[in-house]
Specification:
Layout lengths: L55 H12 L5 E2 L10 H5 L22 H14 L2 E4 L30 H7 L4 E5 L2 H6 L2 H18 L8 E7 L10 H4 L4 H11 L7 H22 L4 E7 L7 H16 L3 E5 L2
Parallel strand pairs: 1-2, 2-3, 3-4, 4-5, 5-6
């Protein structure tokens, strides 16, 4: 997991990404380039070719259009670092038999100079979209701390996951979203725990950065859902949905919903406390659907507590329309 191709389904770029802050400025690498332009090389060497006659700002616009920079980069949901090399070669999207010229970021293979300049556009003007789906757990491993303020060592030092988070942390705009489907049918304790893991890794990554990032967390209608906070007010009318949820997440016994709500509330406290203590100069924005029904007192209380935590720890709290 050492380059942009490991982050997105649409990329097949083979060269590794440089270290932190390498692309802090698009002109940084130009200062050390030779006076004469080298010919374009398919091996990743050379200059800008015909683009050399254009101003750097125009080249950046071209790169942005070529990448579709308005479309966020996403993480692979198929092959991952935990798979064997054989299984990764057999991946139908990124395996050995997939055409190498079918990727979104193939322009990065034309030349070294073009790659370095274009990667600044990817990290500086593009955005990265993360979610809390189950496959994201493959990129997170290690032990979980219960501390409200400490950052856990979610990844072992020798983990294959480290390079992907090195790359993730170079994006200036990062978005995390919990899908509405997961909010309705998922296990809130599991996906909120994944959210805390990702937030912790992002906070750890900012320590070596010189450019502040914008991080958005979209929790959607989390506090409107029956679980974990509105069981008493919604269960009677939605028992069929609840029975389906039990079959998927707890088919052998009925869970302790008070304990579930308590665990999720604790993780939300950890989320705000960790961001407040370790976010550095990053700007964190929280998006939540408000306007909770009057009878959903549990969700309203949890939302109020979460709002207070966000304000206390310096996050921007944004209300979404229901």
């Amino acid at each position: 997991m050492s380059d942009i191709s490991e982050l997105t389904d649409l990329s097949r770029c083979p060269s590794p990404v440089p270290g932190y802050n390498y692309y802090a400025s698009p002109r940084k690498f130009l200062e050390s380039m030779p006076d004469h332009a080298e010919p374009i090389s398919l091996e990743g060497k050379g200059g800008f070719g015909a683009l050399d006659s254009l101003a750097i700002e125009l080249r950046q616009e071209i790169y942005g259009l070529a990448f579709g920079v308005d479309e966020p980069v996403t993480v692979k949901d198929c092959c991952n670092p935990g798979m064997s090399e054989r299984k990764r070669r057999q991946c139908p999207k990124h395996g050995r038999d997939v055409k190498a010229d079918a990727g979104r970021f193939n322009i990065l293979q034309i030349s070294k100079a073009m790659r370095e300049e274009a990667m600044w556009v990817v990290f500086g003007k593009g955005s990265l979209l993360l979610n809390t789906e189950e496959y994201m757990s493959k990129y997170l491993c290690g032990w979980r701390s219960k501390s409200l303020r400490g950052i856990s060592s979610f990844m072992q030092p020798s983990s294959h996951n480290n390079p992907i988070w090195n790359t993730v942390n170079q994006f200036r705009t990062i978005k995390i979203k919990i899908s509405e489907e997961q909010l309705r049918y998922g296990n809130p304790y599991i996906f909120i725990d994944l959210l805390v893991c990702m937030v912790s890794l992002l906070c750890r990554g900012q320590e070596g950065l010189t450019v502040p990032r914008s991080v958005e967390v979209n929790m959607g209608s989390f506090f409107h859902q029956m679980l974990p906070f509105n069981e008493h007010s919604q269960l009677w009318d939605r028992y069929g949905e609840y029975f389906d949820w039990l079959c998927v997440h707890s088919d052998t016994h009925q869970p302790d919903h008070d304990k579930l709500a308590e665990g999720v509330a604790h993780n939300l406290q950890r989320l705000t406390a960790i961001i407040g203590k370790h976010s550095g100069r990053d700007h964190w924005k929280i998006f939540v659907k408000t306007g909770i029904a009057e009878e959903d007192e549990g969700g309203a209380r949890a939302l109020q507590n979460f709002y207070v935590g966000c304000v206390q720890h310096g996050m921007e709290f944004n209300h979404l329309d229901t």
